[in-house]
Design goal:
The complex is a heterodimer. Helix content of chain A is 76%, strand content 0%. Chain A is an all-alpha fold. In chain A, helix 1 crosses helix 4 and helix 9 runs antiparallel to helix 10. Chain B is mainly alpha-helical. Chain B has one domain: MetI-like (MetI-like fold), CATH 1.10.3720.10. The chains are: A mainly alpha, B mainly alpha. Chains A and B meet through helix 1, helix 6, helix 7, helix 13 and helix 14 of A and helix 5, helix 6, helix 10, helix 11 and helix 12 of B.
């Protein structure tokens, strides 16, 4: 186990280097000159040269890439081109805000979606199954943008049930989060429940289910003691691998509801061409993703003794 | 043994094989919702082709006053926008853009996914390690940031979107195909054709891929779907289609208009998107049910 973890951690190195190279190519060596973007069309050559030197853009490319790798390892991503803020501080603040937006609906949504998925799998082939399938496919066919616009307009603007947008930290800020939470849960229901339903249906066809019934176990015992436990493995994979994206937040949601999370930082950086932010953000999320990939595999082995780590 | 061989030689019985495709076609035809969905997809494809033939009405043309609600003339069926342009014509132009992107992205990602997946699964070893590394790198970068990066490098517009979405969307299929090919490469039929002297290319293309091809077909319909969804969101974020012929632009405009009670642009574009996305979803499910050998008894 220990050896496996170490080997997997070592395997992360080429992946992180690959990500760094990709990000470097996309945001540094090609595209517009960031100094010109920052200073505008009418900047003097001297001012441009000075800014380029300050940001290290006058160094040869390989030197810039090495610096970037050092930045990644030391978790120091420099400062924003536009505001001069330290990136890590900005990220930390933003990540907390994003997590306050996404964690609660993620947990609640996952639990209810698993429960509903199990219920629908239990009534497979019935009218309930057919109607809910049609309903979920319908809900998956509506653009995320349309959900946000419609909910914001109907529930906040027309009905006045929630504030239209805004954010405050602390308990008083909860009022701003309710509506985004509702939307996240509603949007995740369709695709998630369909996945969980399929997972449960696959399990019902397994040999151990037939054996359990043959030895006289009741239906509820088979479902809760056998199927639910075995279905945990694919469910776990699906859930754990979604976690890194919680940090990025529901960026469209943050945009529409003026929530200053990581997604909002990202969209602002896209609009202003703030490359250090885009680079840092990409690498951080990529690292989080690789780590959670490893966690998924370890959990896999922990819940399923048949899985051999090698 | 010899009797069987004799009988085979003597009679030359040709059993009409019930091919996978023929059986799939029968299953599909029975499913009424699937048939309707394929018709809807065909309709959108037809609109796209009409667009390229220059036969769609001009979306820039003024057909009435500004913000006319829907009425019973063809151009004003879904109302007009702030410049008195037909919402319906704009939706048709958006459909052309969306379908074009859906098909081109799928056209890029399908061969990459199948090719790399088959190579990695069949050869294993270093080839496999490289392909796995490549998709691990790409999939650990949030696709929105990757797409934005690519559209910085290329000029913003339809080409950048197609390439960017193509680059990120082959991974799921590649994983699937790789896994299946690994399962198949040591099956008896593969060993048999290898003993008969078949080369790697023949084995991969003539023998293994036909067995896993249903995955590609199912993935294709879902890939068109997700490309359309992504295009709308990218255009909304300002990194997508720049000339206004996109559902994403229409949704952006509609956000402000809703507050003044102008609901028809949003309703129209949402309806048009819903229709094609529902059809693609249903088509994907129906194809899976009809083509997956594991689901056919």
């Amino acid at each position: 186990m220990g050896a496996y973890v170490i080997r997997r951690l070592l395997q992360m190195i080429p992946i992180v280097i690959g990500v760094a190279a990709l990000v470097f190519v996309l945001f540094t060596s090609v595209g517009e000159d960031p100094a010109r973007v920052a200073l505008g069309q009418h900047a003097t050559p001297e001012a441009l040269a000075e800014l380029r030197a300050e940001w290290g853009l006058d160094q040869p490319l390989w030197k810039q890439f090495l610096d970037f790798l050092v930045q990644i390892v030391s978790f120091d991503y420099g400062r924003s081109f536009n505001t001069g803020e330290k990136l890590m501080e900005k990220f930390q603040q933003g990540a907390l805000v994003s997590l306050s937006l996404t964690v609660f609906p993620f947990l609640l949504g996952t639990l209810t979606n698993i429960a509903i998925g199990l219920l629908i799998a239990y009534f497979r082939g019935s009218w309930l199954d057919r109607i809910s399938t049609a309903l979920f496919v319908g809900s998956m066919s509506i653009s995320y943008l349309v959900y946000i616009i419609a909910f914001q307009y109907l529930l906040a603007y027309e009905a006045g049930l929630f504030p239209i947008n805004g954010y405050e930290s602390g308990w008083s800020g909860l009022q701003y989060l309710f509506l985004p939470w509702i939307i996240i849960i509603v949007v995740s229901a369709g695709p998630d429940i369909r996945i969980y339903r399929t997972v449960f249906l696959d399990e019902t066809k397994a040999d151990y289910v037939r054996t359990a019934f043959a030895k006289g176990a009741s239906e509820s015992a088979v479902i809760f003691r056998h199927i639910l436990k075995n279905a945990l493995i694919p469910i776990l994979t699906h859930v754990v691998i979604s976690i890194p994206f919680l940090i990025l937040g529901a960026f469209l949601m943050e945009r529409f509801f003026s929530i200053p999370g990581v997604g909002d930082i990202m969209i602002n950086a896209i609009n202003t061409g703030d490359f250090p932010i885009l680079k840092g953000l990409t690498v951080l999320i990529a690292i989080a993703y690789t780590v959670f990939n490893l966690v998924t595999d370890l959990l896999y082995a922990w819940v399923d003794p048949r899985v051999q780590l090698s | 043994m010899s009797a069987a061989a004799e009988g085979f030689a003597a009679e030359e019985v040709v059993v009409r094989g019930d091919s996978l495709l023929r059986r799939a076609w029968r299953t599909l035809r029975r499913d009424r919702l699937a048939v309707i969905s394929f018709a809807v997809i065909a309709l959108y494809v037809a609109v796209t082709l009409l667009g390229y033939a220059g036969l769609l009405p001009d979306m820039q043309e003024r057909v009435g006053e500004k913000y006319e609600p829907p009425s019973l003339s063809f151009a004003k069926l879904l109302g007009t926008d702030i410049f008195g342009r037909s919402i319906l014509y704009k939706i048709l132009a958006g459909a052309k853009t969306a379908m074009t992107i859906g098909f081109i992205v799928t056209g890029i990602s399908l061969p990459i996914g199948i090719g790399l997946g088959a190579l990695a699964g069949y050869y294993g070893g270093r080839v496999d390690a490289f392909v796995v590394w490549l998709y691990s790198v790409i999939s650990s970068v949030p696709s929105i940031l990757l797409i934005v990066g690519i559209s910085y490098v290329l000029e913003k517009g339809i080409t950048a979107i197609c390439i960017a979405l193509g680059v990120v969307s082959w991974i799921g299929l590649c994983r699937l195909i790789r896994g299946e090919v690994i399962k198949h490469r040591n099956r008896e039929y593969v060993l048999a054709v290898r003993l008969l002297g078949a080369g790697d290319v023949t084995i991969i293309f003539r023998h293994i891929l036909p067995n896993v091809f249903h995955l590609a077909i199912v993935t294709a319909s879902l890939s068109i779907l997700s490309a359309i969804k992504s295009e709308v969101i990218l255009t909304f974020l300002g990194v997508g289609i720049q000339d206004g012929s996109s559902w994403g632009t229409m949704i952006t405009d509609a956000t402000g208009e809703l507050v003044s009670g102008i609901w028809w642009p949003l309703a129209g574009v949402s309806g048009a998107m819903f229709l094609i996305m529902y059809a693609l979803n249903v088509a994907g499910d129906a194809l899976r049910d009809a083509l997956d050998p594991k689901l056919i008894d």
